[in-house]
Protein backbone atom coordinates (compact mmCIF):
# COMPACT_ATOMS: atom_id res chain seq x y z
CA UNK A 1 0.00 0.00 0.00
CA UNK A 2 1.83 3.07 -1.29
CA UNK A 3 -0.66 5.83 -2.11
CA UNK A 4 -3.67 6.96 -0.04
CA UNK A 5 -6.31 9.58 -0.95
CA UNK A 6 -7.97 11.58 1.85
CA UNK A 7 -10.80 13.95 0.77
CA UNK A 8 -10.58 17.01 3.05
CA UNK A 9 -13.30 19.57 3.84
CA UNK A 10 -11.55 20.80 7.01
CA UNK A 11 -14.19 19.20 9.24
CA UNK A 12 -13.57 17.02 12.29
CA UNK A 13 -14.64 14.00 10.22
CA UNK A 14 -11.96 14.63 7.60
CA UNK A 15 -9.37 15.13 10.33
CA UNK A 16 -10.35 11.75 11.78
CA UNK A 17 -9.77 10.24 8.33
CA UNK A 18 -6.45 12.03 7.96
CA UNK A 19 -5.19 10.67 11.28
CA UNK A 20 -6.17 7.11 10.31
CA UNK A 21 -4.49 7.57 6.92
CA UNK A 22 -1.34 8.84 8.68
CA UNK A 23 -1.26 5.71 10.84
CA UNK A 24 -1.55 3.49 7.75
CA UNK A 25 1.02 5.55 5.84
CA UNK A 26 3.61 5.26 8.63
CA UNK A 27 3.26 1.49 8.72
CA UNK A 28 3.60 1.20 4.94
CA UNK A 29 5.92 4.10 4.02
CA UNK A 30 2.99 5.38 1.95
CA UNK A 31 2.20 8.83 0.57
CA UNK A 32 -1.02 10.72 1.38
CA UNK A 33 -2.78 12.86 -1.23
CA UNK A 34 -5.04 15.29 0.65
CA UNK A 35 -7.82 16.30 -1.75
CA UNK A 36 -9.99 19.40 -1.29
CA UNK A 37 -12.91 20.23 -3.59
CA UNK A 38 -13.57 24.00 -3.90
CA UNK A 39 -17.21 23.42 -4.94
CA UNK A 40 -17.02 25.97 -7.76
CA UNK A 41 -19.15 24.79 -10.65
CA UNK A 42 -18.34 25.63 -14.27
CA UNK A 43 -21.16 28.20 -14.54
CA UNK A 44 -19.79 30.18 -11.59
CA UNK A 45 -16.36 30.30 -13.20
CA UNK A 46 -17.22 30.88 -16.88
CA UNK A 47 -20.50 32.86 -17.01
CA UNK A 48 -20.58 36.64 -17.36
CA UNK A 49 -22.15 36.90 -13.91
CA UNK A 50 -19.82 34.30 -12.44
CA UNK A 51 -16.52 34.62 -10.66
CA UNK A 52 -13.77 36.74 -12.13
CA UNK A 53 -10.36 35.06 -12.48
CA UNK A 54 -9.01 37.00 -9.51
CA UNK A 55 -11.88 35.71 -7.36
CA UNK A 56 -11.08 32.14 -8.35
CA UNK A 57 -7.43 32.73 -7.47
CA UNK A 58 -8.55 34.18 -4.12
CA UNK A 59 -10.52 31.04 -3.26
CA UNK A 60 -7.60 28.83 -4.27
CA UNK A 61 -5.16 30.86 -2.15
CA UNK A 62 -7.59 30.73 0.77
CA UNK A 63 -7.85 26.95 0.43
CA UNK A 64 -4.05 26.68 0.29
CA UNK A 65 -3.77 28.64 3.57
CA UNK A 66 -6.42 26.47 5.24
CA UNK A 67 -4.60 23.41 3.96
CA UNK A 68 -1.33 24.59 5.49
CA UNK A 69 -2.99 25.10 8.88
CA UNK A 70 -5.02 21.88 8.64
CA UNK A 71 -2.00 19.76 7.78
CA UNK A 72 0.10 21.17 10.63
CA UNK A 73 -0.49 18.16 12.86
CA UNK A 74 2.04 16.24 14.99
CA UNK A 75 0.71 12.88 13.76
CA UNK A 76 1.78 13.83 10.21
CA UNK A 77 5.44 14.16 11.18
CA UNK A 78 7.49 11.92 8.89
CA UNK A 79 4.56 11.39 6.48
CA UNK A 80 4.70 12.66 2.90
CA UNK A 81 1.49 14.65 2.28
CA UNK A 82 0.65 16.16 -1.12
CA UNK A 83 -2.22 18.72 -1.11
CA UNK A 84 -4.50 18.70 -4.17
CA UNK A 85 -7.15 21.38 -4.85
CA UNK A 86 -9.91 20.83 -7.42
CA UNK A 87 -12.39 23.47 -8.61
CA UNK A 88 -15.48 21.29 -8.71
CA UNK A 89 -17.26 18.99 -6.31
CA UNK A 90 -17.94 15.89 -8.41
CA UNK A 91 -17.83 12.71 -6.38
CA UNK A 92 -16.72 10.52 -9.27
CA UNK A 93 -13.77 12.91 -9.67
CA UNK A 94 -12.36 11.60 -6.39
CA UNK A 95 -12.17 8.17 -8.00
CA UNK A 96 -10.45 9.70 -11.02
CA UNK A 97 -7.85 11.37 -8.77
CA UNK A 98 -7.32 7.99 -7.09
CA UNK A 99 -6.68 6.36 -10.48
CA UNK A 100 -4.39 9.19 -11.58
CA UNK A 101 -2.17 8.70 -8.53
CA UNK A 102 -2.46 4.90 -8.51
CA UNK A 103 -4.06 4.98 -5.07
CA UNK A 104 -4.52 1.78 -3.10
CA UNK A 105 -7.06 3.27 -0.71
CA UNK A 106 -9.40 6.22 -0.12
CA UNK A 107 -9.93 7.12 3.54
CA UNK A 108 -12.99 9.17 4.47
CA UNK A 109 -14.54 10.38 7.70
CA UNK A 110 -18.28 10.21 8.16
CA UNK A 111 -20.91 10.86 10.80
CA UNK A 112 -23.48 8.82 8.90
CA UNK A 113 -27.01 9.85 7.95
CA UNK A 114 -30.46 8.68 8.91
CA UNK A 115 -34.10 8.98 7.92
CA UNK A 116 -35.35 11.33 5.19
CA UNK A 117 -31.93 12.95 4.71
CA UNK A 118 -30.40 9.54 4.01
CA UNK A 119 -33.11 8.62 1.48
CA UNK A 120 -33.04 11.80 -0.57
CA UNK A 121 -29.53 13.17 -0.07
CA UNK A 122 -27.23 10.58 1.43
CA UNK A 123 -23.82 11.46 2.78
CA UNK A 124 -20.84 12.60 0.74
CA UNK A 125 -19.02 9.48 1.88
CA UNK A 126 -21.86 7.30 0.61
CA UNK A 127 -21.59 8.91 -2.83
CA UNK A 128 -17.86 8.24 -2.98
CA UNK A 129 -18.44 4.62 -1.93
CA UNK A 130 -20.93 4.33 -4.79
CA UNK A 131 -18.64 5.76 -7.48
CA UNK A 132 -15.14 4.64 -6.51
CA UNK A 133 -13.36 1.65 -8.01
CA UNK A 134 -10.67 2.11 -5.34
CA UNK A 135 -11.41 0.58 -1.91
CA UNK A 136 -12.93 3.17 0.45
CA UNK A 137 -12.23 3.05 4.20
CA UNK A 138 -14.91 4.85 6.23
CA UNK A 139 -14.17 5.93 9.82
CA UNK A 140 -16.53 7.61 12.30
CA UNK A 141 -14.27 8.53 15.20
CA UNK A 142 -10.80 9.77 16.02
CA UNK A 143 -8.41 6.81 16.11
CA UNK A 144 -4.84 7.43 17.22
CA UNK A 145 -3.45 4.12 16.02
CA UNK A 146 -5.40 2.30 13.31
CA UNK A 147 -4.16 -1.26 13.17
CA UNK A 148 -7.05 -3.73 12.73
CA UNK A 149 -6.36 -7.34 13.67
CA UNK A 150 -9.80 -8.93 13.33
CA UNK A 151 -11.61 -8.21 10.06
CA UNK A 152 -15.06 -9.35 8.96
CA UNK A 153 -15.72 -9.84 5.26
CA UNK A 154 -19.40 -10.28 4.44
CA UNK A 155 -19.61 -12.73 1.55
CA UNK A 156 -22.69 -13.38 -0.59
CA UNK A 157 -21.06 -16.50 -2.13
CA UNK A 158 -21.47 -15.17 -5.67
CA UNK A 159 -18.73 -15.19 -8.30
CA UNK A 160 -19.09 -11.41 -8.69
CA UNK A 161 -17.61 -11.02 -5.19
CA UNK A 162 -14.39 -12.94 -5.85
CA UNK A 163 -12.40 -9.85 -6.84
CA UNK A 164 -13.65 -7.99 -3.75
CA UNK A 165 -12.62 -10.95 -1.59
CA UNK A 166 -9.15 -10.95 -3.12
CA UNK A 167 -8.76 -7.25 -2.34
CA UNK A 168 -10.01 -7.81 1.21
CA UNK A 169 -7.46 -10.61 1.59
CA UNK A 170 -4.72 -8.20 0.46
CA UNK A 171 -5.85 -5.61 3.03
CA UNK A 172 -5.91 -8.23 5.81
CA UNK A 173 -2.42 -9.45 4.90
CA UNK A 174 -1.21 -5.85 4.80
CA UNK A 175 -2.35 -5.32 8.40
CA UNK A 176 -1.36 -8.82 9.51
CA UNK A 177 -5.01 -9.33 10.47
CA UNK A 178 -7.31 -12.35 10.60
CA UNK A 179 -9.95 -12.33 7.87
CA UNK A 180 -13.28 -13.77 9.04
CA UNK A 181 -15.59 -14.71 6.14
CA UNK A 182 -19.29 -14.77 6.96
CA UNK A 183 -22.48 -15.52 5.06
CA UNK A 184 -25.65 -14.03 6.54
CA UNK A 185 -28.62 -16.37 6.23
CA UNK A 186 -31.97 -14.54 6.43
CA UNK A 187 -35.60 -15.74 6.62
CA UNK A 188 -38.05 -15.47 3.74
CA UNK A 189 -37.26 -16.00 0.06
CA UNK A 190 -33.50 -15.75 0.66
CA UNK A 191 -33.39 -18.47 3.34
CA UNK A 192 -31.08 -21.40 2.57
CA UNK A 193 -31.10 -24.82 4.18
CA UNK A 194 -27.89 -26.26 5.64
CA UNK A 195 -27.46 -28.46 2.57
CA UNK A 196 -28.08 -25.53 0.20
CA UNK A 197 -25.48 -23.42 1.98
CA UNK A 198 -22.92 -26.25 1.97
CA UNK A 199 -23.34 -26.64 -1.80
CA UNK A 200 -23.14 -22.88 -2.34
CA UNK A 201 -19.97 -22.59 -0.24
CA UNK A 202 -18.32 -25.47 -2.10
CA UNK A 203 -19.21 -23.97 -5.48
CA UNK A 204 -17.82 -20.60 -4.36
CA UNK A 205 -14.58 -22.20 -3.11
CA UNK A 206 -14.22 -24.05 -6.41
CA UNK A 207 -14.60 -20.76 -8.27
CA UNK A 208 -12.01 -19.06 -6.04
CA UNK A 209 -9.61 -21.98 -6.40
CA UNK A 210 -9.10 -23.01 -2.78
CA UNK A 211 -11.12 -24.04 0.27
CA UNK A 212 -12.05 -21.43 2.87
CA UNK A 213 -13.74 -21.42 6.24
CA UNK A 214 -16.96 -19.43 5.92
CA UNK A 215 -19.14 -18.89 8.98
CA UNK A 216 -22.94 -18.98 8.70
CA UNK A 217 -24.76 -16.38 10.79
CA UNK A 218 -28.56 -16.31 10.99
CA UNK A 219 -30.38 -13.00 11.42
CA UNK A 220 -33.46 -11.08 10.34
CA UNK A 221 -31.60 -8.97 7.74
CA UNK A 222 -28.18 -8.95 6.12
CA UNK A 223 -27.31 -5.59 7.66
CA UNK A 224 -28.29 -6.65 11.18
CA UNK A 225 -26.48 -9.95 10.72
CA UNK A 226 -23.21 -8.28 9.69
CA UNK A 227 -23.33 -5.78 12.55
CA UNK A 228 -24.30 -8.42 15.14
CA UNK A 229 -21.65 -10.88 13.92
CA UNK A 230 -19.04 -8.12 14.02
CA UNK A 231 -20.00 -7.36 17.60
CA UNK A 232 -20.06 -11.06 18.55
CA UNK A 233 -16.45 -11.68 17.46
CA UNK A 234 -15.31 -8.16 18.45
CA UNK A 235 -14.00 -7.36 14.99
CA UNK A 236 -12.35 -3.99 14.43
CA UNK A 237 -13.00 -3.63 10.68
CA UNK A 238 -15.81 -4.67 8.31
CA UNK A 239 -15.11 -5.43 4.65
CA UNK A 240 -18.04 -5.16 2.24
CA UNK A 241 -18.51 -5.65 -1.50
CA UNK A 242 -20.78 -2.97 -2.97
CA UNK A 243 -22.53 -2.79 -6.34
CA UNK A 244 -22.39 0.98 -6.60
CA UNK A 245 -25.94 1.08 -7.96
CA UNK A 246 -27.17 4.38 -9.36
CA UNK A 247 -30.46 6.08 -10.18
CA UNK A 248 -33.77 4.29 -9.63
CA UNK A 249 -32.03 0.96 -9.12
CA UNK A 250 -30.21 2.41 -6.12
CA UNK A 251 -33.33 4.16 -4.79
CA UNK A 252 -35.46 1.01 -4.81
CA UNK A 253 -32.81 -1.63 -4.07
CA UNK A 254 -30.16 0.35 -2.19
CA UNK A 255 -26.76 -1.04 -1.38
CA UNK A 256 -26.03 -3.02 1.77
CA UNK A 257 -22.41 -1.89 1.55
CA UNK A 258 -23.45 1.77 1.69
CA UNK A 259 -25.93 1.09 4.51
CA UNK A 260 -23.27 -0.62 6.59
CA UNK A 261 -20.80 2.21 5.91
CA UNK A 262 -23.47 4.67 7.06
CA UNK A 263 -24.61 2.88 10.20
CA UNK A 264 -21.65 0.92 11.55
CA UNK A 265 -19.65 2.36 14.44
CA UNK A 266 -16.78 0.04 13.46
CA UNK A 267 -14.68 1.25 10.50
CA UNK A 268 -15.87 -0.14 7.17
CA UNK A 269 -13.91 -0.75 3.98
CA UNK A 270 -15.90 -1.20 0.76
CA UNK A 271 -14.84 -2.91 -2.47
CA UNK A 272 -16.81 -2.11 -5.59
CA UNK A 273 -17.98 -5.14 -7.56
From TrEMBL:
Highest taxon of source: Bacteria
InterPro entries: Rossmann-like_a/b/a_fold, Universal_stress_UspA, UspA
Start and end residues of each UspA domain: 1-140, 222-271
Pfam families per record: Usp
Family to which this protein belongs: Belongs to the universal stress protein A family.
Protein name (record): Universal stress protein
Species for this entry: Costertonia aggregata
Lineage: Bacteria, Pseudomonadati, Bacteroidota, Flavobacteriia, Flavobacteriales
Amino acid sequence: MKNIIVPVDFSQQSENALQVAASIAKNNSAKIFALHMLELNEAMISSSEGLHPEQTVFFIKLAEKRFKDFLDKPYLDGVKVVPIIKHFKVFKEIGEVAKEHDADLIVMGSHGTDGIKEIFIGSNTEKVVRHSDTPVLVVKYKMKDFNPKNIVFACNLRKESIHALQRAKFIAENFGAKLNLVYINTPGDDFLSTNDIDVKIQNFCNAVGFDMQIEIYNDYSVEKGILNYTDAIQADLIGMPTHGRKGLSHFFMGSIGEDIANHSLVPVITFKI
